[in-house]
Design a protein that fits this description.
2 strands, 46% helix, 9 helices, 179 residues, two-stranded antiparallel ribbon, NADH dehydrogenase [ubiquinone] 1 alpha subcomplex assembly factor 4, mainly alpha, NDUFAF4
Length: 179
């Protein structure tokens, strides 16, 4: 709403104000400093002669100057990224079953691959007395706290197959029509 009010005052009598501003006498520009007038100096013949004259003494000094330029040796940038590991990471071979072709062959200690994670979760789900958190931590070189977190928060999917009579009952059921 405030924009409408200000627009009315801003556009009030615009044409007359513009004509008044155009009809005003233009101000004269400030005089320039004489040193800034290079075009006046370029016209004088003494300056042109001084510029075009060759000085033999300066030419002999210039011939004595010998410049030898060498580029600094080129440094090869490391393509490994911003940070370099301070020590060599210990790696371990992965414990792969029948999914050997799908997974990586080596992982750093303290980490597991995706196939190993799914395997250990499934083993713990099927046989929790044998595959305890302590055994999993020792088997995969993990910390016990991390293994407990994995077993608590990640659960593998369960495939359930319904018996045929249940499936038949579900398909034969007709939906009720809303009236």
């Amino acid at each position: 709403m405030g924009g409408r009010v200000t627009r009315v005052f801003r556009n009030f009598n615009v044409e007359n104000r513009a004509r008044r501003e155009i009809a005003k006498e233009k101000p004269t520009p400030a005089p320039r400093h004489p040193a800034a007038r290079l075009d006046a100096m370029a016209d004088s013949p003494e300056i042109k002669e001084e510029v075009l004259r060759k000085d033999d003494r300066f030419l002999t000094l210039l011939k004595d100057v010998y410049v030898e330029s060498r580029d600094p040796p080129v440094r090869v940038k490391d393509e490994g990224g911003e940070r370099l590991p301070s020590k060599q990471e210990e790696k371990r071979l992965t414990k792969l079953g029948h999914l050997e072709a799908l997974d990586v062959k080596q992982v750093p200690k303290g980490k597991i691959s995706l196939v190993e994670a799914l395997t250990l979760l499934n083993n713990h789900k099927l046989q929790p007395q044998i595959w305890t958190a302590e055994k999993i931590a020792a088997e995969y070189s993990l910390e016990l706290k991390e293994v407990n977190s994995i077993l608590e928060f990640f659960i593998p999917f369960t495939v359930q197959e319904f018996p045929k009579e249940t499936r038949k009952a579900i398909t034969s059921h007709k939906p009720k029509k809303l009236a």
